[in-house]
Predict the structure.
Amino acid sequence: MIVGVPKERKTREYRVALTPHGARALVEDGHVVLVESGAGLGSGLDDHQYRKAGAQVLATAREIFTAGELIVKVKEPLPEECALLRENQVLFTFLHLAAAPELTRTLLERKVTALAYETVQLADGNLPLLQPMSEVAGRMAVQIGAHFLQKEAGGKGLLLAGAPGVRPGHVVILGAGTAGSNALRIAVGMGADVTILDIDPTRLKVLDDHYGNRIHTLMSNSQDIDEEIRRADLVIGAALVAGARAPQLVSEAMVAGMEPGSVVVDLAIDQGGCIATSQPTSHDQPIRFVHEVLHYGVANVPGAVSRTSTFALTNSTLPYIRHIARSGLGEALRQNAALARGLNTFDGRLYCRAVAETLHLPWEALPGA
């Protein structure tokens, strides 16, 4: 199979979908790997390393999309990339279609076979390809929030750890999944006063047993969220429903009740956001002010630590890429139920129920799924 790796074109997206060691594994399997020149530079990986691994380096994205049978990316294709996609070409990347109706329509119209990293799901509900990026984003969320709480960055001038005789900052984390629990880990390590909310009492018990009286755990409901948000210095939105639009947990009225200079980091923004006042931002302009509260809504947070993220992502995606390349997509989907759950579009039809229900579109179940 011919595997194509284009350079990412989203603003300040420095990750690449495949490391040289991943390219080498595919070449050793007997496949052809095409990498766009410069695709890995943002992660400290140059063209020579890919050539040494056996990949062919091509000059343009058009060459990659024209020749590639399986296109692997990090982020969803932008309009100029969508124009290069062709019927029955396999695209494997983060898609987040529930928050992207235009992209969904384009993939359906062009009859692209699109698999989303974020909907590849194991039988126990775990999301193995989303997990490494959620770990990175969760850990980064606290350091991002801590930075923007500084007065010079527009915040209220608060140190999360506090100081002797001074209260620490109050961090509220919405969602105790992978991103939320990783944010919790960093916030506790920084000495903040932390409350984490979730709808799963079992998950909260695990965290409570681990951290003891260093954290506060609450069941997620509108009253407790309202009370916690109003006294929060930093709110981290980390609520997730696999494949679907994120649940909106924080209303505009709640945000309006926060102190000026407080910070919101909405990690769910690529799924529509879980805070009513959030909107997507970019690494170029990461902050918006709403009711004098700083809102950070960058949809590709892990791209800022691209080297770490690129290696973590390839470690997780490579087994699935090798399976598709070795067996062909149809057989790979039959053999691997987790991968089958990653199928979003095929032959002009939608196969992800969560996306379909969010966008009010018809969908089909994969035969045998």
